[in-house]
Design goal:
Helices cover 63% and strands 8% of the residues. It is mainly α and 103 residues long.
C-alpha cells in the first residue's frame, strides 16, 4: 500500500507519479466536489489517490493554503504585466473555469 500520495517537485505539489497538481484537487474539493466527482474530472487518478491528496491537504492545510495564496499572487502579478488583452481574457476564462463547480 502506497501512502505517499503527494510529492513536492518544481516548487509545487503534485499527485505522486502523475502530472496532475495538488492545486487541481484542492480547488475541486473546496468547491464542494466529492472525490467521486473529482475522479470523473481526473480519470487517471484512483479514488485512493484522490482521498490521499485530500487527506494530505487537510493534514497540511496551512502550508498548502499559503502556497495557493502565493501562486494566486504570482498569477495576478503576471497577468498585470501582460498587455495582450486577448491573452488576459483567456486566462480569466481558464481561471473562472477552474473555480466554477462542475456538476
Amino acid at each position: 500500500m502506497n501512502n505517499n500520495y503527494v510529492e513536492k517537485r518544481d516548487e509545487g505539489f503534485w499527485i505522486a507519479g502523475k502530472r496532475i497538481s495538488l492545486d487541481s484537487i484542492v480547488y475541486a474539493f473546496r468547491r464542494g466536489q466529492s472525490p467521486e466527482s473529482i475522479r470523473r474530472s481526473f480519470p487517471l487518478l484512483t479514488l485512493e489517490e484522490i482521498y490521499g491528496a485530500i487527506a494530505f491537504y487537510l493534514a497540511h492545510q496551512a502550508e498548502i493554503d499559503s502556497y495557493l495564496i502565493q501562486e494566486e499572487k504570482e498569477f495576478e502579478s503576471m497577468r498585470g504585466q501582460s498587455n495582450d488583452a486577448d491573452w488576459q481574457a483567456k486566462m480569466n476564462k481558464a481561471r473562472q473555469d477552474l473555480l466554477t463547480p462542475q456538476v
